[in-house]
């Protein structure tokens, strides 16, 4: 079912895009029901229901609530003024979003900057490349330095990683990759800008002064979201809220989710509706992400179980590649975790390989720091490889599409990303992981 769902996401929009746009939720539900039916046939109704409750309340609901909160709050902040999409302006906006992503989250930074980027380039013919670089940098690599709204690193934080471990160990790799990609974007954008019909472009510079609308309400709420996430990772009272069977939620997670719901309500209630209208705020991108990732999380269960079984599982041949002469091969760790994150959600992929590497955060941050670096970089850096590797990636693609951008198909996008990133990642792995 997982392979069927991934192929549906990749192929159906190419075969019949109108049918997919109208029925992607139904198609996702069918694949989910096929897996749940097989699970119920083999293990019974009670076990299946317990599995669904665990997926929905322990994993999916916190995931979606965080996305909804960030999407709602950033949708209430509008950059007013006229920006012209020159190569320098575009590169600066992508840089600012990348710099902010580790501190307000990749989703928050992406939703904050993607609308101004699209508006600035509305008169340009060649602009999709800027959205692709935006996805790579703002929606993924920019979140490398902290656990805030970066799911793989946040799971590592919950498992015992220090909050600033990635800030210290990923800083220079991130500087190398970000500076390389920003330079590449500027060169590509400059070449394409020269091909534009200059008669259709506004004069460079801004026509009116730039200023933010809605920040008085929503910037504090953005900080509250970061605080709620941080609270759930640091406050551990040891109290659990039972749901069904063996499924119980830690109290700190329940409090975090309630706070996120409250933040959504406050933003919706106190933000001027005209600001959202100027942002072309719509719920469809959020609905698409919510429906697709519910199916992905459900269908992902057997795949993760196979990976967790280690060398004795169906993917044992891949797991055995991770060690050479009894020692972890960090380059292999990086590429395998990254390639698997291409098609699996990168957060559970991180957790699986974190545990395969021993699961002891203190050892992994100490003598095995290179291995932890490889696992973290593989899952975080390669979250841009496909539209489904990472939720912010899919959200940016969906929002850009609904705002009129003609984004590449699933496979076209993947091949573009491979051409851009894999040579850079080859240099990174040679310098930092050998």
Largest sheet: 2 strands, antiparallel
Strand content: under 5%
Assign an overall shape: globular
Order of helices and strands: HHHEHHHHHHEHEEHHHHHEEHHHHHH
Number of helices: 21
Biggest sheet strand line-up: 1-2
User: Helix coverage percent of residues?
Assistant: 55-70%
Beta-strand segment tally: 6
Radius of gyration: 21 Å
Q: How many individual domains?
A: 1
**CA-CA gap between termini:** 37 Å
Structural class: mainly alpha
- Give the low-pLDDT segments: none
Query: What average pLDDT do the residues reach?
Result: 89
Give a description of the structure.
The longest helix has 30 residues, at 45-74. The strands form three sheets. The protein has a two-stranded antiparallel sheet. The mean pLDDT is 89. With 434 residues, it is mainly alpha-helical. Helix content is 70%, strand content 4%. Strand 3 and strand 4 form a beta hairpin. Helix 3 (45-74) packs across helix 5 (106-120), helix 5 packs antiparallel against helix 6 (128-137) and helix 16 packs antiparallel against helix 17. The chain has one domain (2-432).
């Amino acid at each position: 079912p997982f392979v069927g769902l991934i192929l549906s996401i990749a192929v159906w929009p190419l075969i019949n895009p109108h049918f997919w746009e109208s029925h992607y939720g139904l198609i996702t539900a069918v694949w989910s029901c096929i897996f749940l039916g097989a699970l119920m046939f083999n293990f019974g109704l009670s076990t299946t229901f317990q599995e669904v409750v665990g997926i929905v309340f322990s994993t999916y609901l916190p995931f979606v609530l965080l996305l909804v909160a960030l999407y709602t709050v950033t949708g209430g902040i509008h950059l007013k003024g006229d920006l012209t999409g020159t190569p320098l302006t575009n590169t600066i906006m992508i840089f600012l979003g990348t710099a902010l992503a580790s501190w307000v989250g990749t989703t928050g930074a992406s939703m904050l900057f993607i609308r101004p980027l699209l508006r600035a380039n509305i008169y340009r013919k060649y602009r999709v490349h800027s959205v692709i670089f935006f996805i790579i940098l703002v929606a993924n690599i920019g979140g490398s330095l902290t656990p805030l709204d970066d799911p793989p690193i946040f799971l590592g934080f919950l498992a015992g990683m220090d909050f600033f471990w990635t800030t210290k160990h990923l800083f220079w790799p991130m500087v190398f990759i970000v500076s390389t990609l920003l330079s590449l974007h500027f060169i590509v954008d400059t070449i394409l800008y020269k091909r534009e019909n200059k008669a259709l472009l506004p004069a460079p510079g801004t026509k009116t002064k730039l200023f933010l609308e809605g920040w008085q309400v929503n910037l504090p709420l953005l900080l509250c979201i970061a605080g709620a996430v941080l609270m759930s990772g640091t406050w551990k009272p040891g109290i659990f809220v039972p749901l069904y069977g063996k499924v119980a939620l830690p109290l700190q997670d329940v409090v975090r989710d309630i706070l996120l719901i409250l933040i959504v309500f406050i933003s919706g209630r106190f933000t001027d509706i005209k600001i959202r209208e100027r942002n072309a705020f719509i719920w469809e991108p959020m609905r698409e992400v919510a429906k697709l990732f519910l199916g992905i999380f459900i269908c992902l269960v057997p795949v993760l179980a196979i990976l967790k079984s280690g060398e004795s599982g169906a993917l044992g041949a891949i797991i055995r590649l991770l060690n050479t002469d009894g020692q972890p091969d960090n380059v292999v760790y990086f590429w395998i975790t990254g390639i698997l994150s291409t098609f699996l959600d990168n957060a559970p992929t991180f957790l699986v390989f974190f545990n395969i590497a021993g699961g002891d955060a203190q050892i992994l941050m100490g003598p095995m720091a290179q291995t932890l670096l490889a696992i973290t970089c593989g899952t975080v850096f390669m979250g841009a490889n496909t539209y489904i590797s990472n939720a912010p990636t899919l959200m940016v693609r969906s929002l850009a599409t609904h705002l009129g951008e003609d984004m590449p198909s699933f496979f076209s996008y993947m091949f573009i990303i491979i051409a851009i990133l894999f040579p850079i990642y080859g240099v990174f792995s040679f310098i930092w992981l050998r």
